[in-house]
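Our consortium's second objective concerns turning raw sequence data into structural hypotheses that experimental partners can test. To show how far this objective has progressed, the report includes one record in full. It was chosen at random from the queue rather than selected for favorable results. The single chain below, 197 residues long, was entered without modification.
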Amino acid sequence: MRFVHTERSAFPIAVTAGVAPPVARLETSYSVLHPAAISSRNAAFRAAMNAGVVAAILSSIADGSSVFAFPLAGFLCVLLYRRRITAGAPTPGIGFRLGAIAGLVGFAILILLKTVLILGFHAQNILHDELIQFLRDAQSRYTDPQMRQSADRLMTPEGLAFFMIFVSAFMCVLLVLLSGVGGAISAVLLRRKSPPQ
């Protein structure tokens, strides 16, 4: 707490008789953040960042490992969060939210790593050729002419851009959900037992 000494005004104040002074209006709505809430937010942010980095690194090591790395990141996020807070154990809902945030952070870092690797190794043409080959393989399995026409449209530059955005958005939602489930499971499994009565 701070105490400020009052000082005398250097300017003269004129008071007139019979005129009511203007009433200063005080703000009635304000919010105070308690130190525990700030500490809890900081702990959640740090736990989500650390778990997201772990998920991104594990996912970039091998293709297909994201399915295991992101639920592990959700589990790890809740574990790290519990170590930093002194309040009660997080509920499964809070665990899901923590895991989902860790999954979002991990996905953003993973996309950034993949982009840097592709641009760093000048592998844009290789990625383009792999996408075209994937779409051609899918097109060869279709017997319906409309589906073949849709696959042809996806092979245009605009179609490839749409396809990549769609796949990225789908993967983001999937990995965030997987990470959230890992966080919820962690909250259930690591719940602090109440002392015997």
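The partners drew two points from this record. Residues 36-189 form one domain. The CA atoms of residues 57 and 110 lie 7 Å apart. Both points have been shared with the crystallography group to help prioritize constructs.
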